[in-house]
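Milestone 3.1: sequence recovery, worked example.
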């Protein structure tokens, strides 16, 4: 690691922007099949803004210079390679590095079959040389070949050690073994969670792809990073009902800021159990999805699952509350499920002229249902009502028989599951028949 961006006392990174690239072995030239490795083909790479790089063997260098020119100057370059990667070739990346020819020869010899291979100490020396020449902090790191699951996990561990919390990262997946890009992209998912690292972009220098005027096209694989955000957001939605990760996934889409606010409002209203305004917010979000999905391939991938999640708003209110109760139960929010199921029964029994938000009307309906069902009988209404109160207050002071039943449900997950299934069946019939 170069000295400029390393804290010598704590050995912690202070870099904020990091370019991560990989180094392979290269194919030996046909006229010298005994060579340890070949060199990458020299090429000019054309970026999406139409700017072409200087001829180079290493796409990572071309990318670094392009990032500097476009305002995202990396504070460091992390180069990942195995003990047999062509590390010596870096000392041929600029004429001025020829003075290190003896060290380059030593690196070459270490890559020969039967040799001990390049060591971490060798790469620290190489990092210092490259840092001094290119005036950017180089961090050349050894990774295993990734032949086993343990070695693949070790590669992720090396990547984890190469970046600090809160860093911004750009990945270059051009060179190296073909399975490395998959591990690098997986690492971006890992680091976003364990270190709050943001992967700004993923680049691939497409040497074998036809380009313009002899240049080679540069492909940005940002869709893969965005896809990871969408998959995670939908997974969270499915497991917890939390819509906030969708807010992040939707950034950059038409009216993105507005829909982000709507997702935040939906989550807040859901947590406050404000079902009535929640319906209109669900409709607003659904309308946006239907409008934007035809023009966004990424949103279109998840359109059906998202519309299904918000579809409850189009149901009659009591059925909508019941749908929310069932979803809450599926995602482990038992207290919320009981409360919504209870309120759905009251809503279903409101008179045609009653406003669902009228507290007095709802109280009258609750009193009427309680009068209809005798407390002495073994009925679902009183069990649901008492369970709702017990979960809200954390205690229950009713009859000893009901108290034992309620406390049994609150202390035994299996018993709760058995009882709530019967209760939900009763609520469905009550709502449907009201």
């Amino acid at each position: 690691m170069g000295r400029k961006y390393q804290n010598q006392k704590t050995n912690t990174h202070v870099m904020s922007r990091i370019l991560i690239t990989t180094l392979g072995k290269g194919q030996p030239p046909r006229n010298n099949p005994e060579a340890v490795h070949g060199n990458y083909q020299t090429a000019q790479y054309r970026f999406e803004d139409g700017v072409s790089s200087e001829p180079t063997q290493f796409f990572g260098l071309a990318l670094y210079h392009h990032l500097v020119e476009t305002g995202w100057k990396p504070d460091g370059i992390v180069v990942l390679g195995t003990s047999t990667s062509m590390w010596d070739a870096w000392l041929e990346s600029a004429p001025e590095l020829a003075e290190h020819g003896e060290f380059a020869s030593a690196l070459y010899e270490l890559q020969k079959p039967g040799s001990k291979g390049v060591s971490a100490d060798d790469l620290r020396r190489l990092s210092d040389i490259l840092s001094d020449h290119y005036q950017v902090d180089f961090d050349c790191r050894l990774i295993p070949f990734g032949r086993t699951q343990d070695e693949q996990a070790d590669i992720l561990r090396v990547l984890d050690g190469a970046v600090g919390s809160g860093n911004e990262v750009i990945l270059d997946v051009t060179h190296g073994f073909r399975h490395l890009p998959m591990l690098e992209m997986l690492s971006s998912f890992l680091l976003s969670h364990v270190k709050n690292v943001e992967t700004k972009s993923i680049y691939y220098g497409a040497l074998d792809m036809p380009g313009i005027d002899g240049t080679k096209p540069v492909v940005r694989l940002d869709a893969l990073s965005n896809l990871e955000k969408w998959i995670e957001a939908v997974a969270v939605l499915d497991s917890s009902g939390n819509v906030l990760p969708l807010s992040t996934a939707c950034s950059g889409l038409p009216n993105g800021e507005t829909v982000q606010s709507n997702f935040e409002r939906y989550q807040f209203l859901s947590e406050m159990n404000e079902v009535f305004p929640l319906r209109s917010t669900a409709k607003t979000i659904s309308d946006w999805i239907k409008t934007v999905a035809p023009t966004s391939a990424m949103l279109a991938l998840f359109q059906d699952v998202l519309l299904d999640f918000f579809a409850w708003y189009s149901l009659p209110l009591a059925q909508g509350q019941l749908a929310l109760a069932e979803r809450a139960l599926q995602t482990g929010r038992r207290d919320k499920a009981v409360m919504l199921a209870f309120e759905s029964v009251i809503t279903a029994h409101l008179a045609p002229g009653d406003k669902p938000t009228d507290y007095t009307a709802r109280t009258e309906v609750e009193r009427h249902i309680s009068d209809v069902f005798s407390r002495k009988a073994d009925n679902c209404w009183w069990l649901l009502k008492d369970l709702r109160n017990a979960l809200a207050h954390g205690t229950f002071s009713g009859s000893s028989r009901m108290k034992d039943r309620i406390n049994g449900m609150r202390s035994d997950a299996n018993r709760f599951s058995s009882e709530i299934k019967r209760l939900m069946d009763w609520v469905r019939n009550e709502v449907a028949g009201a």
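Residues 1-13 have pLDDT under 50 and may be disordered. The CA atoms of residues 2 and 128 lie 5 Å apart.
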